[in-house]
User: What shape does this take?
Amino acid sequence: MKRYSYYSYLLLDDHVKQKLTNICMYGNNREQAIGFFRLATGLYYLSRIMVEDELDFKAIDKNFNRFIFQVIGRGHSITSALQYMSSKKVLWVLESRAFLNLFMDNFPDIPFSRILILLTVNLSVSKKISGLSIAGPLRDWLLKQNAMLGITDDGNPGPDAQLPSPSQIKRFSLSLVTAA
Assistant: This one.
């Protein structure tokens, strides 16, 4: 039997796996179901690695990659899910009627304001790695949602925004750079 670090097991236990696979069942077709799964898994992953503790990213990524392979097959990984989350394809999932409500019902500890933050950080880090501009339809959608929440263009959060600490963002950025 293989040994996993305690924290990597807690990140992706059987209960969480069931929730993530249940979310994908609400897609209208195969492509949307895979999009639901990739976005839900990516958001959950990002929300859990933004902690102050030292993490064993190798063990955590291995655990997530195994789960993703079991659900949607070869060629998919946590890295591909994060890349999907920074593409314009993710808008089809974000703008669907079902996804955001399903995700927040299954993971009430990740509010909508935090989802926006996770998507923004992921977009900026992935575009920085690839050297591309962050301008595009996803950034426009994020700005529109931020405006609805009262987050101003200068990046100042509204009173209800739950922001990760700068050290968490820095650690997340470093982990993505090393994964790429």
Notes: Confidence is low (pLDDT under 50) at residues 154-163.
